[in-house]
């Protein structure tokens, strides 16, 4: 598989009420963020364009939470409370998928980088390219 080839990979919340797929290459650039919500939930970000994400099941099981600027749409399963993906403030044209919520996270080679979300305004532009379609 080339660096640009993507495979649809499944994932979901803990109880199975919410299921999704994301088109991901074998090697993925992922971020570990230290902002208030990511640090507390252990979210490992894999940001993908809109076209590379599909909600398969559970739209009605999602609870929405917005804070601070209200731009990011944090989505949690109403049943088990897991945040498997959300619409990030840095990439409102895409989705951030939690690598920990994939069915087979070990199938990916994650290149995990620290992201300073505590100082979001100073660093957010460095993520903008992640939700753009690969040419």
Molecular structure report:
The protein is mostly beta strands and about 140 residues long. The protein has a single domain, classed as Metal Binding Protein, Guanine Nucleotide Exchange Factor, Chain A (Beta Complex). Helices cover about 5% and strands about 40% of the residues. It has helices at about 35-40, 120-125; strands at about 5-10, 20-25, 25-35, 45-50, 55, 60-65, 75, 85, 95-100, 110-115. The strands form two sheets. Strands 6-7-8-9-4-3-10 form a seven-stranded mixed beta sheet, with no helix packed on it. Strands 1-2-5 form a three-stranded antiparallel beta sheet, with no helix packed on it. The two termini are about 15 Å apart.
Number of DSSP helical runs: 2
Strand content: 35-45%
Kindly report the average pLDDT value.
91
Order of helices and strands: EEEHEEEEEEEH
Strand order of the largest sheet: 6-7-8-9-4-3-10
Radius of gyration: 14 Å
Structural class: mainly beta
Biggest sheet, open or closed, and with what strands and sense?
7 strands, mixed
**Termini separation (Å)?**
16 Å
Helix content: under 10%
Shape by Cα distribution:
globular
| Count of separate structural domains | 1
Q: Specify the CATH class.
A: Mainly Beta
| Count of strand segments | 10
Q: What is the correct CATH architecture?
A: Beta Complex
Low-confidence runs of at least 5 consecutive residues: none
CATH topology: Metal Binding Protein, Guanine Nucleotide Exchange Factor, Chain A
